[in-house]
UniProtKB/TrEMBL annotation:
Main location (coarse class): cytoplasm
Keywords: Cytoplasm, Nucleus, Protein transport, Repeat, Transport
Presence of the UniProt keyword Magnesium in the record: no
Cellular compartments annotated: Cytoplasm; Nucleus
InterPro entries, alphabetized: ARM-like, ARM-type_fold, Importin_beta, Importin_rep_4, TPR_IPO4/5
Name of one Pfam family that matches: Importin_rep_4
A GO term from the CC aspect: cytoplasm
BP term (GO), one: protein import into nucleus
Domain IPO4/5-like TPR repeats, first and last residues per copy: 24-180
Protein name: Importin-5
Length: 284
């Protein structure tokens, strides 16, 4: 068992290393180490300076340091929700400032993922609702990142939004038109990678499938249902013609299927089942 002074010294060394380290790969390893250490002692109030250090660092004019600290926030979000409830207003300001003012797209995307994670793990709907106004900024951040070609960095954020759509439809309700509209814009952007467009489709389908509240909200947006239906039908047309088919000796029903076709078919089935014939037939 390390002495109290040794423990204090190690904590100080770790935090100092995070501030000084310039190599991104090493910085991530440091963040992982600090997160693991914090998980074991933060809830016992044995690292009282940790949160103040993190809040202080995100205000520094250093994208590297901001991203590092947000990575720690990301890994702690699931476990320190109750601990940080008293800081929600401050946290909201930190997220908003980073999403709107940071010059680093990496910091913005990391902040976005952290914000979604915190919202997911807050146990009180009242606490979650305090982040409602962030939704439009969050969607704009995703759109800007995709438009700038940063598709790889947006994948985790899109995946987290899908989880949010499944578990917390109520949180999305007030901004539903903007959120669904933004996702459909992503699915319609032929210039984007198929994988990102498929995630955007999955988000809307997840919202339609999720519990009764989600289905009820989607039924109030018939303009989006018809738009989504058209997108899925277009995906079904993505079949590559091959002259060799005309002389084929055997029949393989799946030979021409693209990933667009497969996703479109699966999502169309799920949409029809979740919303029912009364909603689908009029737009078919």
């Amino acid at each position: 068992m390390l002495s109290a002074s040794t423990q204090l010294s190690l904590k100080s060394i770790f935090l100092g290393c995070i501030q000084r380290e310039n190599a991104k790969s090493i910085s991530k390893r440091l963040c992982n180490t600090v997160s693991e250490l914090a998980l074991s002692i933060l809830l016992e109030n044995e690292w009282p300076d940790m949160l103040s250090f993190m809040f202080q660092c995100v205000t520094f004019d250093s994208a590297k340091l901001q991203e590092a600290v947000f990575l720690i926030f990301m890994q702690l979000a699931q476990y320190i929700g109750k601990t940080i409830v008293s800081h929600i207003k401050h946290l909201y300001s930190v997220f908003l400032q980073s999403l709107t003012s940071s010059l680093s797209s990496d910091v913005k995307i990391t902040t976005l993922s952290v914000a979604i994670n915190f919202i997911r793990y807050l146990s009180s709907s009242t606490d979650r609702d305090q982040f409602q106004d962030l939704l439009s900024t969050m969607m704009r951040t995703i759109s800007e990142a995709l438009n700038c070609g940063q598709e790889a960095t947006t994948q985790e954020a899109l995946e987290l939004l899908i989880e949010l759509a499944w578990t917390e439809q109520r949180f999305l309700r007030r901004q539903l038109v903007d959120v669904v509209g933004s996702m459909l814009q992503i699915t319609e952007a032929d210039s984007l990678e198929e994988g990102k467009r498929h995630l955007a489709v999955e988000f809307v389908i997840t919202l339609a499938e999720a519990r009764e509240r989600g289905r009820g909200m989607m039924r109030k947006l018939p303009q989006f249902i018809s738009r989504l239906f058209a997108i899925l039908m277009k995906m079904l047309l993505d079949i590559e013609d091959d002259p060799a088919w005309h002389s084929a000796d055997s029949e393989d029903e799946d030979v021409a299927e693209s990933s667009n076709y497969s996703v479109g078919q699966e999502c169309l089935d799920m949409l029809a089942i979740s919303l029912g014939g009364n909603m689908i037939v009029p737009v078919a």
